[in-house]
Request: fold
Amino acid sequence: MSDPIAELVSLLSRLPGIGERTAQRLAYHVLGSSSEYAEALGHSLAEIHARVRRCERCGNYTAETLCAICSDPRREESLLCVVARPPDVAALERGAAFRGRYYVLHALLAPLDGVGPEALDLQPLVERAERSELKEVIIATPLSVEGEATALYVAQQLRPAGVRCTRIASGLPHGGELEFTDQITLARALEGRKEV
Reply:
């Protein structure tokens, strides 16, 4: 006979950022909560794939055909930010500094892991650029080897359409100490310096 607590801990620990101890705390939290809460949580998890899809325009997750950002007429239509994954959209939206639209890749180029250009569905983006809908595309992929390779590839695909492609700046976080900053970040911070 299987142990249902161990089974739940095992499943929860497979979530990103959740180790076995956190999974155990979560499992005991669910057990200590009402059965209605546990049922609602289970129902929500069971239904998530049926209720959520990718936005037809940008690829972000939504319950509708178009996400709230693509449906918002106040957003800047000609300014687009390309990101790797939906959590990147959420992070940029929390900052409230970007008022354009997004395009979510859902992958990064990683040839050593077998992820090539075919994993990036860039055709809708290229078509929008060719129709002159876009004035600028900001590429906000991670500042990693895979993110840099993907950024260069996206820019290369958009270049024939004459769209201005920019890359997010990188540098020191607010409150960051030079002493504890890696060499690549320091180099980029120096390259991206601006007048004060």
User: Anything to note?
Assistant: The mean pLDDT is 91. The first helix runs from residue 4 to 12.
